[in-house]
């Protein structure tokens, strides 16, 4: 390596020092901005998700129909509000109003467990739901429910910010896409791959998962109503929510509910809920996922499970959509990084060679 006059091999080149200083300054300012605007992360992710869904309709209205950009954006925002956001708010409000008293007063859960425990001990001598086990279950379930519901209120409060960001993203779609292509520090092929993969993931998480969840929730609600479940609407909503959990899915709702109905209602009600869950809800789950998600991104179940946990911890209830999306994007970017910088290809230009002229 040749050196400029006055430089020894042990000295750091001024260009490297300037670059490191600039990167440190950017990271420092970025951390300050992220810390102060962290409350907007959920709103920003929601805006990006809706932007990906509404991007092509926006281009159709502006380019094909020659609508003004601001009218197109407002029209699509209102449509998304009516079709997606308002139903989600309604389901959330019902779940919160029903579940919050139970979360605030865990003795209600303990009373239910006591009834089931007494029934199992009297008829089958099974000491499964004793006081110690119930205390362990409550200690795990209640904090998760409190975090989920608490995050839900912050999401509802960020709704205005989400649509404000979405409006500018839709109105300035072309500028946004040009900026991304010009400033993302990857090869053109990898930039296209990132855009395609993220679009597919958004469709899978923001459209595929909710559609399957709504179908299962409706089917579950019908069955719970038929077999005399008192809070059949709430149980239907919880069934829809639990459908995002890989492997077990809706089983975590209808199986305990079947046991409870068996205890307080009778064998017909309990067996009816169990059979409806195993046969009808289970079949609908398989059919709906096959029909809806076969054309969408194939997300690994483990990523979905870990993503749901991550999302709920960060954003509350709405995190069941954003969590798997964030985790999937992380793995996509990791793969792109390895492709860009992880190996040295003889056919690629050597990134170190320009330093030989220092």
Notable characteristics:
358 residues, 0% strand, globular
User: Could you tell me the strand content as a percent range?
Assistant: under 5%
N-to-C SSE series?
HHHHHHHHHHHHH
Helix count?
13
Report the count of strand segments.
0
State the helical fraction. Answer: over 70%
Query: Can you tell me the overall shape?
Result: globular
Q: Tell me the major beta sheet.
A: none
Quickly give the structural class.
mainly alpha
Work out the radius of gyration. Answer: 26 Å
For the terminal residues, how far apart are their CA atoms? 8 Å
What low-confidence regions span 5 or more consecutive residues with pLDDT below 50?
346-358
- Overall pLDDT: 76
Structure, explained:
There is one protein chain. The protein is mainly alpha-helical. It has a domain at 194-340. The protein has helices at 14-36, 41-64, 69-104, 107-124, 131-157, 159-171, 173-183, 188-226, 232-242, 251-264, 267-293, 301-315, 319-341. The chain is globular. Mean pLDDT is 76; it is low at 346-358.
């Amino acid at each position: 390596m040749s050196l400029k006059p006055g430089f020894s091999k042990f000295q750091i080149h001024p260009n490297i020092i300037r670059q490191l200083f600039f990167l440190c300054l950017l990271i420092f300012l970025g951390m300050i901005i992220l810390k102060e605007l962290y409350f907007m992360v959920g709103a920003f992710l929601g805006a990006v998700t809706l932007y990906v869904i509404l991007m092509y309709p926006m281009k159709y209205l502006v380019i094909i129909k020659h609508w003004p950009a601001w009218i197109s954006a407002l029209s699509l925002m209102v449509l998304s509000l009516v079709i997606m956001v308002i139903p989600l708010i309604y389901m959330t409000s019902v779940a919160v109003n029903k579940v919050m008293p139970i979360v605030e007063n865990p003795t209600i859960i303990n009373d239910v467990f006591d009834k089931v425990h007494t029934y199992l001990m009297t008829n089958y001598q099974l000491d499964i739901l004793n006081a110690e086990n119930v205390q362990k279950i409550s200690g795990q379930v209640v904090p998760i429910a409190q975090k989920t519901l608490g995050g839900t209120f912050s999401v509802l409060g960020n709704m205005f910010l989400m649509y404000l960001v979405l409006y500018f993203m839709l109105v300035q779609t072309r500028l946004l896409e040009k900026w991304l292509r010009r400033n993302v520090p990857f090869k053109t092929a990898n930039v296209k791959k990132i855009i395609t993969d993220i679009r597919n993931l958004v469709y899978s998480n923001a459209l595929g998962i909710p559609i399957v969840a709504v179908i299962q929730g409706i089917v579950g609600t019908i069955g719970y109503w038929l077999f005399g479940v008192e809070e059949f609407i709430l149980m239907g909503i919880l069934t829809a929510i639990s459908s995002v959990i890989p492997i077990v899915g809706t089983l975590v709702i209808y199986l305990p509910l079947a046991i409870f109905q068996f205890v307080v209602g009778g064998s017909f009600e309990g067996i009816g809920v169990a059979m409806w869950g195993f046969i009808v809800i289970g079949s609908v789950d398989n059919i709906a996922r096959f029909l809806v998600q076969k054309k969408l991104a194939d997300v690994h179940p483990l990523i979905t499970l870990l993503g749901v946990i991550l999302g709920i911890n960060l954003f509350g209830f709405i995190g069941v959509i954003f969590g798997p999306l964030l985790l999937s994007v992380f793995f996509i970017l990791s793969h792109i990084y390895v492709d860009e910088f992880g190996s040295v290809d003889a056919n690629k230009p050597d990134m170190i060679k320009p330093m030989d002229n220092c």
